[in-house]
Amino acid sequence: MPQLDTSTWFLTIMSMIMTLFILFQLKISNYLYPMNPEPVEMKVQKHDTPWEMKWTKIYLPLSLPLR
After folding, report:
1. How far apart are CA 59 and CA 31, in angstroms?
2. What's the domain range around 17?
3. What average pLDDT score do residues 53-60 get?
4. Which candidate, 26, 7, 27, 8, places its Cα nearest to that of 16?
5. Separation CA 7–CA 25 (nearest Å)
6. Is the residue at 66 inside a domain?
7. For FRET with 3, which of 14, 23, 38, 42 sits at 20 to 30 Å CA-CA?
8. Global pTM?
9. Mind listing the pLDDT tens digit for each residue in 38-55?
């Protein structure tokens, strides 16, 4: 039974990685980035709810003191 020849694996893997890197670089270089992006100001809407002015505290059943 013949042995598997792994002597060329390193060269094959390295060439594949280099090729993928070059292809990704070419793909990314074709993308047009905006020259000077500026933030857009958004208007904040105020919602009046009845519980905004009240102070509430929620007690967990396990955190209540023992009787």
Report:
1. 54
2. 8-59
3. 58
4. 8
5. 29
6. no
7. 14
8. 0.44
9. 888 888 777 666 655 555
The single-letter DSSP state of residue 51 is T
pLDDT of residue 46: 74
Q: Which two tokens stand for residue 25?
A: 């670089």
Dihedral angle at the C-alpha atoms of 54, 60, 63, 66, nearest 10 degrees? 100
Q: How far apart are CA 9 and CA 2, in angstroms?
A: 17
Residue 54 to residues 47, 50, 51, Cα–Cα distance (Å): 15, 8, 5
User: What is the pLDDT, as a whole number, of residue 23?
Assistant: 97
Tokens of 35: 């020259």
- Residue 64 maps to a domain: no
Domain count of the fold of the chain: 1
Return the pLDDT at 39. 82
